[in-house]
Amino acid sequence: MLKKSNFSLIIGLLILATGPAYFPGFTIYLFTYGMIMAVAALALNILLGYTGLMSFGHGMFIGSGGYTVALMMKYVGVHSFEILIPLSILISAGLAALVGCFCTRQIEIYFAMLTLAFGELLFALCSKFYSFTGGTDGIRVKMPTLFGYIFSRGATDFYYFVLALFLLCTAAIWVICNSPFGKTIQAVRDNELRVGYLGLLVMKYRLIAFTISGAFTGLAGVLAVSLTGHAVSELFQVFTSISIVFMVILGGHTSFLGPAVGAIVFVFLQSWLKPLFFWQFFLGVSIILLVIFLPGGVLGGVSVWLRKALAKISS
Amino acid sequence: MVEKGPGQDILVNISGLVKHFGEVHAVDGVDIQIFQGEVLSIVGANGAGKTTLLKMITGGHSIDRGNLFFKSSDVSRLGLIQRARLGIIYSFQIPALFENLSALDCLRMALLTREHKTVMFFPTIEKFPLVRKEAEEILDMFKIPKGFLACLLPHGQRKLLDVAMAFSLKPHLLLLDEPTSGVSTKEKGQVMDTIMPIIRQTNTTTVIVEHDMEIVTRYSDRVIVMDQGRVLAQGTPQEVLSNPKVGEVLLWR
Q: Which residue in A185, A158, A240 sits closest to A46, CA to CA?
């Protein structure tokens, strides 16, 4: 018999796969952006949910991925995803490894504050080197090509490209989280002292987790600027980082797919609330209410609701 | 049966070990030899320096002065991780488990560490059937249900799981810090009756810190009594029990 969780997964995949057939263009745009941010949220959850580290600086990897694309286009003339994606992943992973060398020596609030500080540092650098990075005005980014194929921004073909990458990243992150390495970082999260007494260097595992997380977030950065057509220094800033944290908490960091659901919900919520005056206030209130009434996140809440509904039907 | 203790190969040779915490002389010039395959118990009143000594052997506490030889090599300056890799494994007084992992996964984690597979990103842990099989066998040996999350196990089984994780690393020297602490009087025997046959069967050199003299006399080959950071007496359980100084310190008479 099909498990309930598998059933929900199939329904979700069907909606994503057939969405362009019945959703209007702007909804498709939001779904595309939601899936991109879902990659970043799943990547952050490698740290938050699986390693027990809260990063307030993941915007820096969205920025590093995004700016790799923008700068490569502007100064080198590279316009193809097949070069930009691996390069951005490599640069983001390198940045994460470098920043991680400093941050992963610390835990809890000290780790969080260091990641925040590095994010702000990169934001300041990016803003100040105006002539090179475009500062807060940013750099316009053309839609890259894929083996010569030209995507239309916000159109169905790019949606399916993002969907394919989202599924690929989700599968890769799932395998990593359930691999021996994945179990080790969960052990680090639960009891780092014991991990040390087993003979493992805790910092090494934190650093690897941070690097992997940064690499996937970098990929999200590439796709984000390709979709929006703009790389700005705010990508590095704390609001981007906090948004990704919100997405993870909103969806539920204790379930694997929770952060992905949280990202899509967050993007839609943000879009609906933006026309309102002082929209951040309403966004904050919505998130507070969701966290209070759905402490397990949207996915946790929905699964509890589904379970109750099914129990009522069967009785 | 071969007599364990002096006469066997020396596994650990400790000389003049000192550890001070400010004014407190936790370990104050300890000389001990631990022999291959023996079960050695360290007893003493609270604050006698037993756990500090154990943690100095593991590398959890640094050594202020003195030497620690393991298999004839000086390991005094090695850290916790290097010593664990040499096979000096510690089991905690308060169980140190991976609370949100199942008992099976806690064991698999320890086995993957032993097999040097913790930096593998692919495939998933389920694709290691031999690791699973061995983990299940060890859980059966220690009578621990495999499906429960570690945080949901009763205290006695948490203690057993802690020891099982240490044991699964195939230690050359297993250090058990009060394996029956917090366990009911009735359960103490059950816990020790589960652990000790496995240790005897595998001939694992074991040091036990314990307060319960009944357990010490029943399961140890040799006993060391500590008082105020020093070794007060050592010998077979019978020799130690008949020592009047030991009686005064441990107040069992």
A: A185
Q: How many A×B Cβ pairs under 8 Å?
A: 93
Q: Is pLDDT of B253 > 50?
A: no
CB contact under 8 A, B80 and A189: no
The pLDDT assigned to A51 comes to 95
In the predicted model, what is the mean pLDDT of residues B37-63? 91
Chain B contact probe: residue of A50, A168, A188, A198 with most B CBs at under 10 A: A198
Q: CA-to-CA distance for A21 and A303, rounded, in angstroms?
A: 27
Longest dimension (CA), chain B: 61
Where does the pLDDT of residue A12 fall: very low under 50, low under 70, confident under 90, or very high at 90 and above?
Answer: confident
Chain A residues lying within 8 Å of B90, measured CB to CB: 197
**B3 and B83 co-located in one domain:** yes
Q: What domain count does chain B have?
A: 2
- Does the residue B74 lie in any domain? yes
pLDDT tens readout for residues A142-191: 999 999 999 887 688 999 999 999 999 999 999 999 999 999 999 999 99
How many Å lie between the alpha carbon of A251 and the closest alpha carbon of chain B? 20
A50, A187 Cβ separation under 8 angstroms: no
Contacts of B58 in chain A (CB under 8 A): 197
What pLDDT shows up at residue B2?
A: 46
Name the range with the highest mean pLDDT among A100-114, A201-215, A261-275, B62-76: A201-215
B152 CA to chain A: closest CA distance, Å? 14
Which tops the pLDDT comparison, B250 or B183? B183
Report chain B residues touching chain A, CB-CB < 8 A: 58, 60, 80-81, 84-85, 89-90, 92, 96-101, 105-106, 108-110, 112-113, 117-126, 128, 165, 169
CB A244 within 8 A of CB A40: yes
Structural domain including B58 reads 1-87+175-184+207-253
* Mean pLDDT of chain A, nearest integer: 90
- The answer to whether B101 contacts A175, with C-beta atoms less than 8 Å apart, is no
β-pair partners for B67: B15
Q: In sequence order, what are the residues at sequence separation of 6 or more whose Cβ sits closer than 8 angstroms to the Cβ of residue A304? A: A296
Q: What tokens appear for A136 in the block?
A: 């807060």
Pairing of strands B173-177, B205-209: parallel
How sure is the predictor about A3, in pLDDT bands with cuts at 50, 70 and 90?
A: low
B97 with A178: Cβ contact below 8 A: no
Q: What is the pLDDT of residues B148-170, one digit of tens each?
A: 899 999 999 999 999 999 999 99
State how far the Cα of A290 lies from the Cα of A34, in Å rounded to an integer.
18
For residue B113, the distance in angstroms to the closest alpha carbon of chain A comes to: 7
**Which CATH number among 2.30.30, 1.10.3470, 2.60.40, 3.30.565 corresponds to the domain A24-314?**
1.10.3470
